[in-house]
């Protein structure tokens, strides 16, 4: 899981959008609760933005160089699938810099 420490090298910003109470955002809320502290400690100056909005579908947005953004819909995903989606976004950012 070395990629976790490379988030700040591959991305410019990561936004996670979720609803505070909807069942669709339950696994996203749990993912944030379990992983935010470790990810932030490995990437202390990186902007992890957690946005809560009533009724919104859970999404993860990654911003790369030159303003390029990619979105992943997290609705129905497990915590493991969300983590894998984040890993894929990070690795995609690393691939564009190679």
TrEMBL record:
GO terms for cellular component: mitochondrial inner membrane. Residues 20-93 form the Ribosomal protein/NADH dehydrogenase domain. The keyword Electron transport applies. It is a peripheral membrane protein. InterPro entries: NADH_Ub_cplx-1_asu_su-2, Ribosomal_mL43/mS25/NADH_DH, Thioredoxin-like_sf. Keywords: Disulfide bond, Electron transport, Membrane, Mitochondrion, Mitochondrion inner membrane, Respiratory chain, Transport. Disulfide bonds join 19-53. Pfam families: L51_S25_CI-B8. It is found in: Mitochondrion inner membrane. PANTHER family: NADH DEHYDROGENASE [UBIQUINONE] 1 ALPHA SUBCOMPLEX SUBUNIT 2, NADH-UBIQUINONE OXIDOREDUCTASE B8 SUBUNIT. Accessory subunit of the mitochondrial membrane respiratory chain NADH dehydrogenase (Complex I), that is believed not to be involved in catalysis. Complex I functions in the transfer of electrons from NADH to the respiratory chain. The immediate electron acceptor for the enzyme is believed to be ubiquinone. Belongs to the complex I NDUFA2 subunit family. This is Ribosomal protein/NADH dehydrogenase domain-containing protein. It comes from Brassica carinata.
């Amino acid at each position: 899981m070395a990629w976790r420490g490379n988030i700040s090298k591959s991305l410019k910003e990561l936004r996670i959008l979720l609803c505070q109470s909807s069942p669709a955002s339950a696994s996203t809320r749990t993912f944030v609760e379990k992983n935010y502290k470790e990810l932030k400690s490995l990437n202390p100056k990186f902007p992890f933005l957690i946005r809560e909005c009533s009724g919104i579908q859970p999404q993860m947005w990654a911003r790369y160089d030159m303003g390029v953004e990619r979105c992943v819909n997290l609705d129905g995903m497990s915590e493991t699938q969300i983590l894998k989606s984040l890993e894929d976004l990070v690795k995609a950012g690393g691939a564009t810099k190679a």
